[in-house]
Specification:
The structure is a homodimer. Chain A is of the alpha/beta class. Helix content of chain A is about 40%, strand content about 15%. Chain A binds a DNA duplex through α2 and α4.
Chain lengths: ~350, ~350
DNA sequence: TTGAAAGCGCTAACAA
DNA sequence: TTGTTAGCGCTTTCAA
């Protein structure tokens, strides 16, 4: 066969619909300038006649030229790209963090690779490996539990990394976490200010560091407020509404004093507690006030009454993670475990004047 | 000053901790071969003496060489990178989709850029623009509502794009959606099989296409099952537990017949309905059975009793979106609105033999 | 079996 | 003011 004949058109299926993006070379050719000139015009740099500059920009606009970041990254040191490794398969905590982070980085024209490792170290390693291949400028690591985890690496050593809602077992690493203990203190101070004297704490499993920290805050704030620690008023269980109901049943059937307030380890427990109280004919908040944790609207707003809760300010945490990462990328060193304040969101489950419906001393 | 003096060391802050990644040039130099040879060895291609190949690979391993994807992408046609534009700021529906999509694409060594547009067209456009600069091979668009939206572009024209849980107002675009109508049919068939005759439908706002489709499924399945359409048994409101409770109150206080089953437009409504029934002394499922929609465990498992629900199989949807996008990237054309089946997940709120506790005909 | 060199799209230093 | 060119890290011919 004659090789000079044009080859047959490729079959429909394999004909890609993407037409190759125009390059700076195309712009230069059409605008009848050199590539260097075109580059200068497009990057608004150097001295150039206004006329040439305009012509180049016009042509670029007309043919839909868009610089190729890949090519730029190749000889800038930076790819303007970071990776985020998430280990929260449900996303309830991770999502607001990631969202705020992404928003903050978008302002800086940095794009975010999203990788879900779902607590599988092999997958995680694979993802990090891929991200290194993509020459990301930094890494963010998130998790569902705020417990210590082995640091990324050593294969990622030297890469700016921020752990957020997650804690690396490496003193040099930067970890950004909510101040769980402080959050608990907020809750107890609030209840104490309302005149409550017998505050119980119903919470999740103790293998969560958050549980241990909130517990510590509970006890320290009680004593700071001059309130007695009552036997049987600290109940650790699981993170469910059912446990909230159970725990309330236990508190009500016991021999000892009955609580006039509950501080719950999360909003699901708090909601279960609210249901159990209502169904036992105990009024919230007049007889028993409730404060939850997480400020998860799905729970706090649907509960009857709506729940006062502690907000971990996850969006702020995500935004700050972005900022710290940007700092690290530009060479600033940082490390250590840093905790950010929670805030109290008051709703009906704890509203009302202190002591109005209470026996006063 | 003498220019030949070495410049002062940069201040601590600006000294970046990242040591430049080794290049193939480094590998070649240390292994004492040419760059071409090193490349051949690393890519397992071409004929090469086993000895040289081993030496190159050993050196590469020792110095931690990792190919630079950016450089590769530059003259491959593909970047092995896609972008996902999400418009669901809460993430409840989007998250499982994105997660499955990311997992599927990771198998193909394709990385995912995550962009949240939060329903702001300007932000969306900005993101698409950035993604085009990064030379992504494709785009996935997700939303919170499965309603029609303007297509991405025309600036992204020609770029393989899949709309998932989201529908482009463009007949050529590929949209992947759950079969809401079929889901409703599943629910009604299930209840009819249990012997229920008076099935009410409590749902969300009609401006959601999903509401209209589920409504259509409700009516068509009723008539297919030979069941009467009862006046006042279709109630459209909002997506909340409170509305579920309200709607039940309406159904119970009305003059007409009382329902023996409820099909709810989502699980929050269903949970509210379950609460209202229990508090009215009506037993679920013996007196009134309930089926929800979304199969959101936070609701279905916490409700008393646990809720039967329709699952939209979002993970499967996400995985398929990944597959279709891969197809499109490799040149396969696809388009149209494609709906994927939902499935029924039976729990206590509708369990039990048909008619055992019911008046039978 | 190995090496040399062109080129992917872009920037920046230098030359004209 | 504009053009030329080296080179970012890699692959891929072609030559040796």
């Amino acid at each position: 066969m004659d090789k000079t004949f044009p080859p047959a058109a490729p079959p429909e299926e394999s004909r890609t619909p993407v037409r190759a993006a125009p390059t700076i070379r195309d712009v230069a050719r059409i605008a009848e300038v050199s590539i260097g000139t075109a580059s200068k015009a497009l990057n608004a740099g150097g001295r150039l006649s206004q006329e040439t500059r305009d012509k180049v920009l016009r042509v670029a606009g007309e043919i839909g030229y868009r610089p190729n970041d890949l090519a730029q990254s190749l000889h800038r040191a930076k790819s303007r790209t970071i990776g985020i490794i998430s280990n929260d398969s449900f996303g309830r905590f991770t999502f607001p963090i990631v969202e705020a982070l992404e928003e903050r980085l978008a302002d800086e024209k940095i794009a975010v690779f999203m990788c879900n490792a779902t607590d599988d170290p092999a997958r995680e390693r694979q993802h990090v490996d891929q991200l290194l291949g993509k020459r990301v400028d930094g890494l963010v690591v998130t998790a569902r539990r705020a417990d210590k985890r082995p640091p990324i690496g050593p294969f990622a050593h030297g890469l700016p990394t921020v752990y957020v809602f997650s804690q690396a077992d490496d003193p040099d690493a930067l970890s950004l976490l909510p101040d769980d203990e402080g959050g608990a203190v907020l809750a107890i101070e609030h209840l104490a200010k309302l005149g409550r004297k017998r505050i119980a704490h119903i919470t999740g499993p103790e293998h969560f560091e958050a549980v241990r920290l909130r517990k510590a805050g509970y006890f320290s704030a009680l004593s700071a407020a001059g309130l007695a620690v009552i036997d049987g008023f600290y109940l650790s269980g699981v993170w469910s509404e059912a446990w909230g109901r159970d725990a309330v049943a236990r508190l009500l059937t016991g021999q000892g004093p009955k609580p006039d307030a509950l501080f719950c380890g999360n909003d699901q427990i708090a909601r279960g507690a609210a249901d159990a109280l209502r169904e036992s004919g105990i009024e919230v908040p007049s007889e028993v006030a409730i404060v939850g944790f997480d400020n998860w609207d799905v729970m706090t707003l649907a509960a009857r009454p709506p729940l006062t809760s502690i907000d971990m300010n996850l969006k702020a945490l995500g935004r700050e993670a972005g900022e710290r990462l940007i700092d690290m990328i530009s060479g600033k060193r940082a490390g250590g475990v840093q905790r950010r304040p929670c805030s109290l969101v008051v709703r009906e489950s704890s509203e009302g004047e202190a002591g109005t419906q209470r026996e006063l001393e």
